């Protein structure tokens, strides 16, 4: 079932990823100022892990912040320093929040251990530290961390996939609808300009018919890439339908929107499209409908409708044109 889920998302199996390296080879920061105890713990841990011993809490905090550690063991009875406070600092700053922490405490210190657990320290060991218990608790925390990291990565990847068009890598229609709705609702009154372009490749069916569907796909990918290059990061570029792309220009008036559309149209026409199977390049042109938001628009659909009507006019007038 896991394998199935990960195939669906097109991502690696997070559990397999996390358990493949079963607790081996972690980088461990051991914050302990009793030399005997530090050496005993480090000796055991070094069978499987890389261990850095740091007796000074300030230096330890700096080291941990610089990153690169998978886990820290923190003595609660550092000379002249409150180990629990160090734990709290490590838990509260962004750079170290996700790093697993294990407290090392004296038997009489159980009340502070409980406080540490309360504010999110992951685990603890009581002195004298048992070697097998030490290894087991470290292994468990490292595995948990690797699993949550892998899961977070997988979730981000699948969220990304849900709003991305697989063929072109552009945003998909779902993304466009969500963001355009929000843009309209938030800024309806204030925004100086908001414009939409609908771009539709001319006679695309003929390209498919002459060169094959795969060549058509390649043309689409190149087309999408050129449109993206000709727009700015604030613009939304989304695949709207088969060979139609919508561009939302959040800061453009009509003149600027027309100019951008004209620039895209010219470039598509001027640079021939090459595809793998065909020896010749393929001439491609695009028709573009332009619309801007009107104050009386009930929603973004009204603006897109006008762009679509303008696109239809461009087609009717002979294609390879920009109309508004
Ligand atoms: P025009 O827009 O100039 O009126 O003519 P057209 O030939 O482009 O007409 P239309 O927009 O109606 O047809 C678009 C064609 O695009 C139909 C469909 O087979 C093809 N198409 C849609 N999606 C894809 C795709 O992902 N890949 C390929 N290769 N073709 C696609
Ligand atoms: Mg059409
Ligand atoms: Mg078309
Ligand atoms: Mg079309």
Give the structure's gist in a few sentences:
50% of the residues lie in helices and 15% in strands.
Structural description of this entry:
This protein is α/β, with parallel strands linked by helices and 324 residues long. The protein contains twelve helices and ten strands. A five-stranded parallel sheet has the order 2-1-3-4-5, sandwiched between helices. β4 (101-105), α6 and β5 form a beta-alpha-beta unit. The longest helix is centred in the middle third of the chain and has 32 residues, at 131-162. The relative contact order is 0.09. Mean pLDDT is 91; it is low at 1-11. Bound molecules: 3'-deoxy-guanosine-5'-triphosphate and magnesium ion (MG) (3 copies). 3'-deoxy-guanosine-5'-triphosphate is lined by residues 167, 200-205, 208, 213, 216-217, 220, 242-243, 315, 319.
Fold topology:
Layout: H1 2-9, H2 14-20, E1 27-31, H3 35-45, E2 50-53, H4 57-66, E3 71-75, H5 83-92, E4 101-105, H6 110-118, E5 123-126, H7 131-162, H8 173-187, E6 195-201, H9 204-211, H10 213-229, E7 236-239, E8 244-249, H11 254-270, E9 286-292, H12 300-316, E10 322-323
Parallel strand pairs: 1-2, 1-3, 3-4, 4-5, 9-10
Antiparallel strand pairs: 6-8, 6-9, 7-8
This protein binds 3'-deoxy-guanosine-5'-triphosphate and magnesium ion (3 copies).
One magnesium ion binds next to loops.
């Amino acid at each position: 079932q896991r394998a199935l889920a990960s195939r669906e998302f097109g991502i690696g199996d997070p559990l397999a990823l996390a358990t493949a390296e079963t607790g081996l080879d972690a980088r461990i920061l051991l914050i302990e100022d009793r030399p005997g105890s530090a050496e005993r713990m480090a000796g055991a841990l070094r069978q499987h892990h890389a261990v850095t011993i740091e007796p000074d809490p300030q230096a330890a905090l700096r080291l941990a912040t610089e990153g690169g550690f998978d886990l820290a063991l923190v003595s609660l009875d550092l000379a002249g320093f409150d180990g629990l406070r160090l734990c709290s600092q490590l838990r509260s700053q962004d750079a170290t929040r996700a790093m697993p922490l294990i407290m090392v405490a004296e038997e009489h210190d159980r009340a502070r251990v409980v406080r540490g657990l309360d504010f999110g320290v992951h685990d603890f060991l009581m002195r004298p530290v048992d070697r097998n218990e030490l290894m087991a608790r470290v292994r468990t925390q490292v595995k948990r961390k690797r699993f949550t990291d892998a899961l977070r990565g997988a979730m981000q990847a699948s969220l990304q996939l849900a709003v991305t068009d697989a063929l072109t890598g552009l945003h998909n229609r779902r993304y466009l609808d969500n963001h355009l709705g929000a843009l309209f609702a938030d800024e309806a009154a204030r925004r100086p300009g908001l414009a939409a372009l609908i771009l539709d490749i001319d006679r695309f069916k003929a390209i498919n018919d002459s060169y094959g569907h795969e060549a058509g796909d390649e043309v689409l990918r190149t087309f999408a890439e050129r449109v993206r290059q000709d727009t700015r990061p604030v613009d939304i570029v989304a695949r709207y339908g088969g060979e139609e792309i919508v561009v939302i220009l959040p800061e453009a008036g009509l003149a600027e929107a027309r100019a951008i559309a004209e620039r895209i149209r010219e470039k598509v026409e001027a640079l021939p499209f090459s595809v793998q199977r065909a020896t010749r390049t393929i001439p491609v042109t695009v028709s573009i409908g332009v619309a801007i938001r009107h104050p009386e628009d009930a929603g973004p659909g009204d603006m897109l409708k006008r762009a679509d009507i303008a696109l239809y006019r461009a087609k009717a007038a002979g294609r390879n044109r920009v109309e508004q």
